[in-house]
Amino acid sequence: MSGTGAQNAMIFFLVFVALTLAITWWAARRTQSANEFFAAGHRITTTQNGLALAGDFVAASAFLGVTGIAALSGFNAIVFAVAMTVAWPIMLFLFAEPLRALGKYTFADVIEYRLGDSRIKGWTALVTIVSIFTILTFQMAGAGAVIKLLFGFSYSLSVALIGVFMLVYVLFGGMIATTWVQIIKMVLLLFITFLLLGLVLANFDWSPSAVLGAAVARSGAKVLGPGGMPPLELFALGFASTIGVTSLPQVLLRFYTVPDPGVARRSLLLASVIIGCCVIMFVFLGYGIMAVLGPDAVRAADRGGNMAVPLLADHYGGAILLGFVGAVCFATILAAVCGILLAGSAALAHDFWIGVVRGGKANDAEEFRVAKIATVLLCLGGVLLAIMVEGQNIFVLSAISATIAASTIFPALILSLYWRGLTYSGTVAGLFAGLGGGLLLLYLGPLVQMQMLGQSSAIVNLGAPAIITCPLSFIVTWLVSLMTSPGVSPKRYDEITARTGAGWQA
User: Fold this and answer.
1) Could you read off the pLDDT of 243-278 as tens digits, one per residue?
2) 47 by DSSP, 3-state: which?
3) What are the sequence ranges of the domains in the chain?
4) For residues 437 and 429, is the Cβ–Cβ distance under 8 A?
5) Rg for the chain (alpha carbons), in Å?
6) pTM higher than 0.90, yes or no?
7) Contact, 16 vs 331, CB < 8 A?
């Protein structure tokens, strides 16, 4: 970014920071308990939660990444975007109402209630924290790279800056501040996307077909069809993205912020509509960038296409519009990592410390205090890990987080809500099969062996192993459950079915 663009970005950034710090001060006065810290006192409305849920998905990786892929290769962006978008209606039908009806703060509460065994919280907390750390690391690493490009800071300073603001918002404002930061970010993102789309369409007499025609003229008809990746690998990546998004801890945590299951359902429906519209706009905007600037110009600025949107802003609006886009990107990144940090704090404080160490006997004041300590520790850990992976391919880290969530959280939730025969031993075995198998196949696969370790080939030629490890977790859970005592699990299943309508009698 040019000096003038960076200065404008800094001005817009300071305005955003001032606004969100004011919201954090307001939220801090309303965050005096663990319930308010983790779940905003269950007072978030349908519209607020819908925008915040959409914000959890539409992070910088979607805004800059999907648009950049479309600007470079066209149709391939649709494959990635649709795979992640499909997760939301799946989540709507499977999880929204049952989780709000049964959970307190985290998905581990649902698992514990279903099995009637508090020991499960230790294992679910472990899985959640591993998943959170990988998500937090890749988001902060990506944030550092983007902020470095946009503002000209060093990578380490960029990551540390994100960490400081993230800590302030979450530590003092909890879920209330995090929700409002997401809402503001989502409104800004929709505004800048509509503005850039309008500028592109105006350049082609408001004809979408003319935009696509110009893109084809620059890059050939191949941009209107898929290519460049083997079908099996493409399907595996789509599967990991879809199931991984469905089970992201920071998204599941949002179901507990609303007053009742009906609001959870309606807010997720609203989020699905917003996300679907955003995906369509991002892909078409990418085609517009291809038509106006060409893929060579995008690739020259950043090989992965992440600077496609800033380049378009600079082309149409110069330093002022470029600076505004830079500030929106910062807001997008910051909002995403705040939600992730809060979910990690819930797992460490509520699930592990209160559920395991204290046996569920601690009072609210202790839980609130431990939650703040956990927030600081997780933030420091995320900053250090993000600095350590500087220069690594961000897609590697995102594939790791998606694989872990899809191979552990998703099977455990599905079977807890919908299978009567689940047992404690089966759940633990499934969690370890999914986690261990996922980490092993990731290590042996091309993403780690070739892209991180620099080897010429991989032992396992599969970049997104959730297509194997997710079914493996289901199978192991089922087999071990058949061979072990169910305890109170069937009775709890009947209670869940009566209260939520979930479940089947297989």
Assistant:
1) 888 888 888 888 888 888 888 889 988 988 898 888
2) helix
3) 3-500
4) no
5) 22
6) no
7) yes
